[in-house]
């Protein structure tokens, strides 16, 4: 242990400085605590140092340590001695102050990492996973639902503090009124909390999990979810509607006509590109990333759909078949606007317009899939599996799905040809 130097006074310490020709930095023992000294640098700065030794590994020499206690005169002689005595007390207890500080810093860093909030975690998760998603809309959907429903209750809560009451506070207000949205919000919260657990930001069970947890506290979504059907035109009026539609010259009208003739979802048609369409083979191949089921879907094009496409202009600067007037993908609202104008014109002329008689609402583009489905079931003689394949519906029977390999394309060609003929005002 270093010898105890003469105990200097405040005045003596103040006068300490380099002597002429003395090599810097230089340290002056100040006494009072073994190993405590004042170091003077070449720039004239002064700071406190405490030197001590700790045992090394078995069979090795002791390790020499130096600990800075702050600059002088900000840290006074009295305060420096107090700090030095605290360190000496730690050494007496077998604690190495340097290693102790390292452990404290490490613990603090770990605590800070674990203190991120749910909103921060959601942002990190979305940034990490968005490259896997089908399109930019997927990210927007995640951000919008979490911002609207989860963030007001969870946004500023630390991940490590989130528990079941927090999750229920988000879900219970919307569980029976916005069941589908609430289900998605729950799934997204569960995924983010799983991600946080894997990243060591939290520990324990996931409070947003459904099976064996929330299913004991919330009603099953299938029991409370209100059934919502898109307003649809009765199939008996399809030909009259088509005659009226073909009088419209807007590109949105052609997009709607294409949706009707193919029984496709409006988004699949609005995002269609010329590269997906083979007019010679009369087939439109929708890639998996744009299909709801995530599987490539071949759509047989009947003669009416082929002629519609042949008559369309090929616009420069875009591969889209039905681009928006200002570029980019046409909105679903554009097709709804076509229907609304047609409806208003009918009503103005004294008619009833284009209404769903069951819902008493104006029909929608998506509703034509129901129109097609009703026609196929009640008028055509094609089996159910052919119709379901035409609508690109997922096979719910797992056993059947496991063995189904083909897409019934040739049969669907006949089905879609009959549908086009049924919709043709001339026939």
From TrEMBL:
The keyword DNA-binding applies. CDD domains: INT_P4_C (cd00801). PROSITE patterns: CB, TYR_RECOMBINASE. GO terms for biological process: DNA integration; DNA recombination. Keywords: DNA integration, DNA recombination, DNA-binding. Residues 228-416 form the Tyr recombinase domain. The keyword Nucleotide-binding does not apply. GO terms for molecular function: DNA binding. Residues 116-197 form the Core-binding (CB) domain. Signal peptide: none annotated. Pfam families: Arm-DNA-bind_3 (PF13356), Phage_int_M (PF22022), Phage_integrase (PF00589). Gene3D superfamilies: 1.10.150.130, Integrase, DNA-binding domain, Intergrase catalytic core. Belongs to the 'phage' integrase family. This is Integrase. It comes from Halomonas aestuarii. The lineage of its organism: Bacteria, Pseudomonadati, Pseudomonadota, Gammaproteobacteria, Oceanospirillales.
């Amino acid at each position: 242990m270093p010898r105890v130097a003469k105990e200097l006074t405040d005045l003596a310490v103040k006068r300490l400085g380099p002597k002429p020709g003395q090599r810097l930095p230089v340290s002056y023992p100040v006494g009072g605590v073994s190993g405590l000294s004042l170091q003077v640098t070449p720039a004239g700065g002064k700071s406190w140092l405490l030197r001590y030794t700790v045992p090394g590994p078995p069979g090795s020499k002791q390790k020499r340590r130096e600990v800075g206690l702050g600059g002088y005169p900000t840290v006074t002689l009295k305060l420096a001695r107090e700090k030095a005595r605290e360190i000496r007390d730690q050494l007496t207890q077998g604690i190495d102050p340097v290693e102790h500080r390292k452990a404290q810093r490490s613990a603090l860093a770990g605590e800070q990492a674990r203190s991120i909030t749910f909103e921060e975690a959601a942002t990190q998760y979305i940034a990490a996973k968005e490259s896997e998603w089908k399109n930019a809309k997927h990210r927007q959907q995640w951000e919008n639902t979490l911002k609207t429903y989860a963030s007001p209750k969870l946004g500023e809560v630390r991940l490590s503090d989130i528990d079941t009451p927090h999750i229920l506070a988000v879900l219970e207000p919307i569980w029976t009124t916005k069941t589908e949205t609430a289900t998605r919000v729950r799934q997204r919260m569960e995924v983010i909390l799983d991600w946080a657990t894997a990243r060591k930001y939290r520990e324990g069970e996931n409070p947003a999990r459904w099976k064996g947890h929330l299913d004991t506290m919330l009603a099953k979504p299938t029991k409370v979810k209100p059934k919502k059907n898109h307003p649809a035109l009765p199939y008996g009026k399809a030909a009259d509607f088509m005659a009226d539609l073909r009088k419209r010259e807007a590109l949105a009208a052609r997009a709607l006509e294409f949706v009707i003739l193919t029984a496709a979802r409006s988004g699949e048609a609005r995002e269609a590109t010329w590269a997906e369409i083979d007019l010679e083979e009369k087939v439109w191949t929708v890639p998996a990333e744009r299909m709801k089921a995530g599987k490539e879907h071949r759509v047989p094009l009947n003669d009416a759909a082929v002629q519609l496409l042949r008559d369309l202009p090929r616009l420069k600067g875009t591969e889209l078949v039905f681009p928006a007037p200002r570029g980019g993908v046409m909105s679903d609202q554009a097709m709804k606007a076509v229907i609304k104008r047609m409806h208003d014109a009918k009503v103005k002329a004294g008619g009833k317009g284009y209404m769903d008689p069951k819902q008493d609402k104006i029909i929608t583009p998506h509703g034509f899939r129901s129109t097609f489905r009703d026609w196929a079931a009640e008028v055509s003689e094609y089996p159910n599996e052919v119709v379901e394949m035409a609508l690109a519906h997922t096979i719910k029977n797992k056993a059947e799905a496991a063995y189904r390999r083909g897409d019934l394309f040739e049969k669907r060609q006949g089905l879609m040809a009959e549908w086009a003929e049924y919709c043709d005002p001339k026939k």
